[in-house]
TrEMBL record:
<protein>
    <submittedName>
        <fullName>Inner membrane protein YdcO</fullName>
    </submittedName>
</protein>
<feature type="transmembrane region" description="Helical">
    <location>
        <begin position="12"/>
        <end position="33"/>
    </location>
</feature>
<dbReference type="GO" id="GO:0005886">
    <property type="term" value="C:plasma membrane"/>
</dbReference>
<dbReference type="GO" id="GO:0042925">
    <property type="term" value="F:benzoate transmembrane transporter activity"/>
</dbReference>
<dbReference type="InterPro" id="IPR004711">
    <property type="entry name" value="Benzoate_Transporter"/>
</dbReference>
<feature type="transmembrane region" description="Helical">
    <location>
        <begin position="126"/>
        <end position="146"/>
    </location>
</feature>
<keyword id="KW-0472">Membrane</keyword>
<feature type="transmembrane region" description="Helical">
    <location>
        <begin position="207"/>
        <end position="226"/>
    </location>
</feature>
<keyword id="KW-0812">Transmembrane</keyword>
<feature type="transmembrane region" description="Helical">
    <location>
        <begin position="247"/>
        <end position="271"/>
    </location>
</feature>
<feature type="transmembrane region" description="Helical">
    <location>
        <begin position="167"/>
        <end position="187"/>
    </location>
</feature>
<feature type="transmembrane region" description="Helical">
    <location>
        <begin position="95"/>
        <end position="114"/>
    </location>
</feature>
<keyword id="KW-1133">Transmembrane helix</keyword>
<feature type="transmembrane region" description="Helical">
    <location>
        <begin position="71"/>
        <end position="88"/>
    </location>
</feature>
<feature type="transmembrane region" description="Helical">
    <location>
        <begin position="319"/>
        <end position="337"/>
    </location>
</feature>
<feature type="transmembrane region" description="Helical">
    <location>
        <begin position="45"/>
        <end position="65"/>
    </location>
</feature>
<feature type="transmembrane region" description="Helical">
    <location>
        <begin position="349"/>
        <end position="382"/>
    </location>
</feature>
Amino acid sequence: MAQSFPPMQTVSTGLVVAVVGFFSSFPIVLQGLHAMGASPAQAASGLMSAAIAMGLAAIALSLWYRLPISVAWSTPGVALLAVSAAPAGGFSEAVGAFLCAGALTVLAGAWRPLGRLAAAIPTSLAQAMLGGVLLPLCIVPFKAAVDLPWQALPVILTWFIAGRINRLIAVPAAVLAAAIVVILNAGDNTVLPDRLMAAPVWITPEFSLASVIGIGIPLFIVTMATQNIPGIAVMRSFGFSPDAGRLFSWVGGASILSAPLGAPATCLAAITAAMCSNEDSHPDPDQRYWSAIMGGLFYCLFGVFAVAITGFAAHADPLLMGTLAGVALIGVLANATSAALENQTEREAAILTFAITASGITVFGLGAAVWGLLAGGIAYLVTNRKN
């Protein structure tokens, strides 16, 4: 029987989950929002609403199902936004695309044919598209090491050394190093934000076919393929039996509710799901859902102070923020590339998807991720027909 208060072990696990989940990827979220045309106030609102949405979703779903359901923002999704061209209608149009991606996620959970279609996208192509999205971002730290060595190199070295001790602390340690660099380079200028607590900013969504196809659908695909579906698989690997369709619909609904406040996508977590589901969370599997609940509470707390985080980040050189985002994504890039090229018969289609996506081209208003997946899909079908 589940107890009515959290075991202390799950409180500490929840804190680690939130620190890893938030501080390992918030620079990428900010980059993605700024690339979509968000103002500083809108970016702070987006970061705040994304953190609170995933926190509340984790709390509600874990309590309702008594399962360790860890929820996250879509790190691959915001990486996609960071390398995509801003829509012609500005951030309002991007918000419309976020809403469409959330609606598709709800539909994928409620209508099985769409869910099966999303799951039927070959893993090699989905991972190749993700790898192509990440490559330009992961190159930035090494460009910054040349152009901004005294700021970028301490961050890179901290990330590398901390990662040798524990991979989970590598990026939070790099964030701390970047904060010290910002303070040391501020001189007599204050780096303290004007406000500590964030205020939500309503963004009225606008819709266009180009943004739906170029941003909304790729955001849905990459989130489903690299977050939602693996998140279910992780929980099942630890002996839990979540209802995939309902969870997809719930996190899609959270995306819809938070999108007008600037949040890109709420989804099931994969890495932090493993942290909540394993024996380190709690020896008793029936108590592990408390880790996801506590993680959700800490996410909400971090979200409330998002404006202070974004205000502090505004004092950093853009290359320094790019360095943080890049080192945070190197591990994801390695995993995506490995998964994309694992199957030899699908390798040609995967590398085609990877190369076109990494090229950053835009044709007919559609971004490289769309064309990469389309070209790779055609190559995949032709190759499989021959075989």
